[in-house]
């Protein structure tokens, strides 16, 4: 499974992108479950965010959803944080 996160917005407006490929990882099942829950709560179109807030595009194996601060679910927040931290 390939998980990609693109973050835009924020005070400085700096875009950040990262991805994680779960193939061969010992924790792949955990990533898959988290990604499925995050996708289930996402929107098919970019939501209206708040001034200086972040907007996110989450893509898992070609399926893309959108989310924005401050209305991220716990699963979306966790997935986004993990991908931006561990991804390249």
Write a concise keyword list for the protein shown above.
alpha+beta, 31% strand, 4 strands
Q: What is the radius of gyration? A: 12 Å
Shape: globular
Number of helices: 2
Which regions are unreliable across 5 or more consecutive residues at pLDDT < 50?
A: none
Distance between the termini: 15 Å
Strand order of the largest sheet: 2-1-3-4
Beta-strand content estimate: 25-35%
Mean pLDDT: 94
What is the number of beta strands? 4
Query: Can you tell me the number of structural domains?
Result: 1
Order of helices and strands: EEHEEH
Main sheet summary: 4 strands, antiparallel
Helix content: 25-40%
Q: Which structural class best describes the helix and strand composition?
A: alpha+beta
Please give a structural write-up.
The chain is of the alpha+beta class and 88 residues long. The protein has one domain (2-86). The chain contains two helices and four strands, in the order ββαββα. A four-stranded antiparallel β-sheet has the order 2-1-3-4, covered by helices on one side. Strand 3 (54-60) and strand 4 (63-68) form a beta hairpin.
Could you give a short description of this structure?
This protein has 88 residues and is of the alpha+beta class. It is built from two helices and four strands.
